């Protein structure tokens, strides 16, 4: 079927005929496809299987360069391949021959695919929309911008590229001639090449390599997004390009015609690639647009500096206090302070951008040096002289040096002033090492603040409504010997000491910022003292100080910030209210200690009591029970929002009947509890006020003390069942010991647990059964039998529990606790190591003691009696901390480093804690339950050891007994020199004790 070379020359039209063979430019607008039609040109995924070769086959389809030259006619042959005008007419069949070229109906069955193949070969009308590329897929369908210039024709060339309109009518057959163009069946066979000829049409593998673009050329063929707009027809031209519905029906072949329109299924294997050889291109619609940055926040602030303080002291009148009651007096003082502040530092509204700026950059010296550096930089960029460049580099170096020193001084001031406040230190280090966690911007609005306020209130009210008391527990109260009828007025000195000792935290409710108040305290101290005394004498707590501001805090950074239940309400109270609370707290505590009103086994928020003393008492009892061959069962009780559900009426009744408070003192406490309110603050947005009708104020000074008094009957209830217990605020633990086969104590424990649950319901406290934990201590075989009996009582023991921050296991070897401490300490040590280059060595040591050493020392009195191997991991932490501080290499010997730092190793730190607690117990500065463990040694006759302060060492049989505090602490105490034991003060004892232990280790 290929013409001879001499015939090709006669088939090319003359140049003058080419001009009339294309459409005019104005006609080309209707010859393209619109975007909605382009979408209908995309084949379905199942049709793509046979549409192209695999990438590895493309390499074999490119011909060699030397073969390319022989693949087309020579230039001189092209001229002879154009047909003459008179020959064009004889190049097609005559009309009468067209009729004979149509195949018979019975022959058409073999000319197309089988009927079952029809479904995938023609789109339905509703499928037309999905057959073209998506709008976003057009990005990869054209050349790069630099290639477009060579592809576009000049305007004057477009005019000669198609036939004239009047010539187009004669360029195709008439409709009535179309029927005669179809060839006869016998002619069809001569049109299709024989199978053996097909093989000669396919190029050799080595020819395929040069037949397509290289991979790096493909990347340059994609147009830019801004060029896509000019690659298709205009929207107004698209209306004329869509076929009418009746035309679509005529474009679909009949089923009997489809059978002859394609190859057979068995022939498709050689024509393309199977479905398993086709790689599909999948398009994703991703919304990756970045979130818009938050707008500037509107803030109100006063510019307060050193000159402002001096002006305030000069203008304020400390004696200008007037009013008939405490509320009027407070309003008078507040108005006077605000008038002075408005005069010297008026409130200004500013737009603060949401960006973190280092505060040390605001230093005057830093800003001056920065301006000088920028000035040198501009001069160098303008002149381009090397001498100016050297000046600029010198100024830049000086700026960096000043910035480093200022930054170091800034953090040194924070660390030095808060060395005893681990919370502020943690905030400082966390801000340096981790990005700040902020609330989502969508939560910073008034509706969300109101939503938080309602949620926090409904949570407490829901707990109270869920409490359904069916029984009433009657507990006999102890007799009270004295009464507290009123609070004593205080002096200026007492108020000054109280303010100085309180934390400098402040909130938006304070008229004066706390730090500013402390700096001008002498000028306002008389006014504050008058307000405090008026409140104590009248028995009224000021209404303005009953408001709390709540700030939601996400419990964990990994939690969903859009879920309200993942937030913890943090309450902030006015500073002046805390001063008044502290004065009452001191007088109320003195009264309770004088009358022994505290529960002996209540260690929460009491002087000389701590979580460590509480755990020492519990573990000592359990270890001694194990030494006696007994099994111990410990139950940890958990309360839900215990401080928030305290009933005010029950609390006031308990203060009067159980404690002995009456008169104006009781009236003051009643005024303090009632009519309190709060609002939620997020950023610059606040909620409406919400009232509080129950609970003790969160974040207050008196709240924990009042809760301890509220829980007084619980200890009486547990003691009546002969059950051992210990309380730390709202954390209660009860435990019993029993021998093998004796389950009576377990039954008593279960009965006591039921009574505790009933008592808590009577007092509007909810026992959280899901967080109540049970653990059994003792030998393995005995633990298993007791655990089986506990299961029958619906009590499920655990292998380990967390008790007041310490992980306790059934063997009491504290391996899990040591691993937890190691992990947490190394985490903080890693964060500290990140900032060691921007702080001084002294400040670095303070941070290490605050975050690492404090974890080594927390409740390490429980580790007395353990072997050095058991605490070896803790020693690794101390060694690593010493290495960070002194920049010691990893494999250097660490003992000289510890000696140079004067650090006691971990085993000696444990002995130090035990000996210090013994000294405090013997001198009345420890809980009574600790003092009762330590019995002075009294020989039967006078010996040299008489009166030397030795302790009686308990006789034990097992390692558990040797690890008990009562045994190990007495042994450590007796090993100390008499000069250490006879120290006259705690400070002197600590100094002598450290010297003794240090010399014993390193000398």
From TrEMBL:
Residues 193-205 have a biased composition (Basic and acidic residues). PROSITE patterns: RT_POL (PS50878). Residues 534-808 form the Reverse transcriptase domain. Residues 1-272 are annotated as: Disordered. This is Reverse transcriptase domain-containing protein. It comes from Oryzias latipes (Japanese rice fish).
């Amino acid at each position: 079927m290929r013409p001879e070379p001499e015939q090709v020359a006669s088939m090319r039209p003359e140049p003058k005929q080419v001009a009339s063979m294309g459409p005019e430019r104005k006609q080309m607008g209707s010859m393209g496809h619109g975007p909605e039609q382009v979408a209908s040109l995309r084949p379905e995924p199942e049709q793509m299987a046979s549409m192209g070769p695999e990438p590895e086959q493309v390499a074999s389809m490119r011909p060699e360069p030397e073969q390319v030259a022989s693949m087309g006619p020579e230039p001189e042959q092209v001229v002879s391949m154009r047909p003459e005008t008179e020959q064009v007419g004889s190049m097609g069949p005559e009309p009468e021959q067209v009729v004979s070229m149509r195949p018979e109906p019975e022959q058409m069955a073999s000319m197309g695919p089988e009927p079952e193949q029809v479904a995938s070969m023609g789109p339905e009308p509703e499928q037309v929309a999905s057959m073209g590329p998506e709008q976003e897929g057009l990005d990869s369908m054209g050349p790069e911008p630099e290639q477009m210039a060579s592809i576009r024709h000049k305007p004057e060339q477009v005019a000669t590229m198609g036939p004239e309109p009047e010539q187009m009518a004669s360029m195709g057959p008439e409709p009535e001639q179309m029927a005669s163009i179809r060839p006869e069946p016998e002619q069809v066979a001569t049109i299709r090449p024989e199978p053996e000829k097909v093989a000669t049409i396919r190029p050799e593998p080595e020819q395929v390599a040069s037949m397509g673009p290289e991979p790096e050329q493909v990347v340059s063929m994609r147009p830019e997004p801004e060029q896509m707009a000019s690659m298709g027809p205009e929207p107004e031209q698209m209306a004329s390009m869509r076929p009418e519905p009746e035309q679509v029906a005529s474009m679909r072949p009949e089923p009997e015609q489809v059978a002859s329109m394609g190859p057979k299924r068995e022939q498709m294997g050689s024509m393309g690639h199977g479905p398993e050889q086709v790689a599909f291109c999948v398009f994703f619609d991703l919304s990756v647009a970045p979130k818009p940055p938050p707008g500037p926040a509107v803030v109100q602030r006063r510019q307060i500096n050193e000159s402002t303080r001096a002006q305030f002291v000069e203008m304020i009148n400390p004696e200008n206090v007037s009013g008939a009651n405490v509320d009027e007096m407070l309003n008078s003082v507040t108005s006077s302070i605000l008038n002075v502040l408005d005069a010297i530092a008026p409130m200004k509204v500013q737009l603060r951008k949401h960006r973190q700026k280092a505060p040390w950059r605001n230093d005057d010296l830093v800003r001056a040096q920065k301006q000088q550096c920028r000035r040198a930089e501009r001069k160098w960029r303008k002149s381009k002289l090397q001498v100016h460049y050297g000046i600029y580099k010198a100024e830049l170096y000086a700026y960096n040096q000043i910035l480093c020193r200022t930054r170091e001084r800034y953090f040194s001031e924070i660390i030095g002033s808060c060395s005893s406040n681990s919370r502020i230190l943690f905030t400082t280090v966390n801000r340096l090492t981790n990005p700040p966690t902020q609330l989502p911007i969508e939560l910073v609005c008034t509706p969300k603040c109101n939503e938080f306020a309602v949620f926090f209130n409904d949570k407490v009210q829901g707990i109270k409504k869920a409490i359904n008391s069916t029984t009433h527990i009657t507990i006999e109260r102890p007799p009270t010997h004295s009464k507290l009828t009123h609070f004593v007025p205080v002096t200026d000195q007492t108020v000054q000491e109280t303010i100085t000792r309180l934390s400098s935290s402040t909130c938006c409710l304070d008229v004066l910022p706390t730090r500013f108040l402390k700096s001008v305290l002498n000028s306002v101290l008389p006014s504050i003292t008058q307000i405090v005394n008026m409140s104590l004498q009248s028995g009224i707590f000021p209404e303005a100080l009953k408001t709390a501001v709540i700030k939601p805090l996400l419990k964990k950074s990994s939690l969903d910030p859009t879920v309200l239940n993942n937030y913890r309400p943090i309450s902030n109270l006015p500073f002046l209210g805390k001063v008044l609370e502290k004065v009452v707290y001191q007088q109320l505590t003195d009264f309770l200690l004088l009358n022994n009103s505290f529960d002996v086994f209540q260690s929460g928020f009491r002087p000389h009591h701590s979580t460590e003393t509480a755990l020492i008492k519990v573990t000592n009892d359990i270890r001694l029970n194990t030494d006696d061959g007994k099994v111990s069962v410990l139950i940890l009780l958990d309360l839900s929002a215990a401080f928030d559900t305290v009933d005010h009426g029950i609390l006031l009744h308990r203060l009067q009947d159980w404690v002995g408070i009456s008169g104006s003192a009781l009236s003051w406490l009643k005024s303090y509890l009632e009519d309190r309110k709060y609002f939620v603050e997020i950023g610059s947005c606040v909620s409406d006020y919400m009232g509080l009708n129950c609970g003790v104020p969160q974040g207050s000074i008196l709240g924990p003390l009042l809760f301890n008094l509220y829980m007084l009957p619980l200890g009486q209830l547990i003691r009546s069942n002969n059950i051992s217990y210990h309380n730390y605020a709202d954390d209660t633990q009860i435990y019993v010991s029993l021998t093998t086969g004796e389950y009576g104590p377990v039954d008593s424990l279960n009965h006591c647990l039921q009574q505790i649950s009933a008592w808590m319901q009577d007092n509007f406290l909810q026992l959280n059964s899901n967080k109540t934990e049970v653990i059994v201590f003792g030998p393995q075989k005995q633990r298993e039998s007791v655990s089986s009996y506990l299961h029958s009582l619906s009590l499920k023991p655990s292998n380990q529990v967390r008790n007041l921050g310490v992980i306790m296991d059934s063997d009491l070897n504290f391996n899990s606790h040591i691993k937890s401490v190691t992990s947490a300490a190394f985490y903080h040590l890693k964060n500290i190591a990140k900032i060691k280059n921007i702080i001084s060595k002294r400040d670095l040591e303070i941070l290490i003691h605050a975050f690492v050493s404090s974890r080594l020392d927390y409740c390490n009195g429980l580790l007395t009696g353990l072997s050095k191997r058991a605490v070896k991991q803790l020693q690794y932490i101390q060694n690593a901390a010493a290495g960070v501080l002194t920049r010691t290499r990893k494999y250097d010997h660490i003992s000289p480093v510890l000696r140079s730092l004067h650090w006691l190793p971990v085993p000696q730190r444990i002995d130090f804690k035990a000996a210090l607690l013994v000294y405090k117990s013997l001198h009345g500065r420890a809980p009574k339950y600790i003092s009762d463990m330590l019995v002075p040694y009294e020989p039967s006759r006078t010996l040299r050891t008489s009166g030397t302060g030795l302790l009686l060492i308990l006789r034990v049989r097992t390692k558990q007994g040797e690890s008990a505090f009562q045994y190990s602490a007495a042994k450590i105490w007796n090993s100390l020199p008499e000069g250490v034991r006879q120290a006259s003060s705690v400070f002197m004892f600590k100094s002598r004790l450290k010297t003794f232990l240090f010399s014993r280790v390193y000398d």
